[in-house]
Amino acid sequence: MSGIGVLGAGLAVLGVGLGIGRIGGSAMEGIARQPEAADKIQTAMIVAAALIEGAGLFAIASTFWA
Amino acid sequence: MKQTNRIKTIVLAGLSLLMSVNFYANHHEGEGHGTHKEGVAKEYNPVVTIMDHIKDANEWHVITTDENTAHPNHISIPLPVIIYDNEGLKFFMSSKVAHGHTHEGYKMTHDGQVVSVAGKKKADMFDVVKGNLSTDAVFFDLSITKNVATLILVFIILMIVFPKMAKSYKKGLVPSGVAKFLEPIVLFVRDDIAKPNFNQKQMDKFMPFLLSIFFFIWFSNMMGLIPFPPFGANLTGNISVTFVLALITMLVINLNGNKGYWGHMLWMPGVPVPVKILLAPIELVGVIAKPFALMIRLFANITAGHIVVLSLIGIIFIFQSIGGSLMAVPLALFISVLELLVAFLQAFVFTMLAALFIGTSTAEAHH
After folding, report:
1. Beta bridge partner(s), residue B91
2. Sign of CA pseudo-dihedral B163, B182, B225, B55
3. Contact residues on chain A for B293, CB-CB shorter than 8 A
4. Given an 8 Å threshold on Cβ–Cβ distance, is A54 in contact with B356?
5. DSSP character for B193?
6. What is the ipTM of this complex?
7. Domain count of chain A?
8. With an 8 Å Cβ cutoff, is A37 touching chain B?
9. Which tens digits make up the pLDDT trace of A33-54?
10. Which residue out of B295, B297, B307, B345 would a mutagenesis test of the A interface target, given it has the greatest number of A Cβ atoms within 10 Å?
11. Residue in B245, B93, B63, B248 with CA at minimum distance from that of residue B154
12. Taking CB atoms and an 8 Å limit, are B352 and A47 in contact across chains?
């Protein structure tokens, strides 16, 4: 992993952090408005977060070849 | 009485966590091969230790004594080495090739990898794909390595625990013994993972698969967190293991795919013909991309967890002062506890996404 690769990994994590942060925040708002839907919101939140994380991990894995 | 029991449990749990940190430290100390030679204090390199731990190995390193002397004493559990090459099948224990000894044309590197003395390459997946399988150039390593041993151990544990659980229900519907602990988790898989994605008929069909991958991944993740042999191998942080898990998931998704699933993939209904042609290759990429993401996610999460814990422990050996330990131990403890959560979460996410993909490929048409 070269210097530029590390920089790329950092940028990828920045994007993933923003994305998952938004999902988490919105889920919190959703649960606050409708606590009885908490279970469904939680599951959907984890699935969406996992998909974003997947994209981020692709980016981080590809920085090893940079 | 109940209160004291609870306190006892908490104290025991705390002690075992502290102990685990301690063992990591021992493990770590033992593995700094040749970093300290006879009083000459060299800079400690944590990367060597971490990579040693992350990689698979043909022996199970326990501890190194007399490390700062000219003759460090490495104590390892030997594992069986099974090799197929042009001279046929070879079987010997890895202790025969330890400490620089050569046996039947093979020796072991200091990080526990069996290599050919003649310079033959160990056959890997790329050799299989390229057809580079001549036994004059490569040898096939079928050894029971650290990861394979852990795999067998997880298999044995699952094989003991689950039949026992099933048997306990013959006495009555009230769970007893190990079923008390596992029933809520099985119900969690059924109600939170399977139910939102399947109807009743599909659920009966796919619950065994979902439960199998969930408990296999969860148990292996937890095995990796126990930091002393015969545990602590980086099993689910090995790309081959997650590859096979993802491959099985891919086969289950696609072999069960119904007409609607393939129809939506190859000839998307409801869009103009040029778009249909454009969408087919994109959808076909998804067949590979979905399990590929499953593979990378599990591998990267578990490997990253192990690296973080070992890096934090490494701080102690880099600073070699009380201050370093005061910083490193609480942080390592925190990350270790977080890893317990991640171990469960990754098993959940893998199973959840598998259920989601299988659910979409087998869904009844509704339009």
Report:
1. B82
2. positive
3. 51, 54, 57-58
4. no
5. I
6. 0.71
7. 1
8. no
9. 999 999 889 888 888 888 788 7
10. B297
11. B245
12. yes
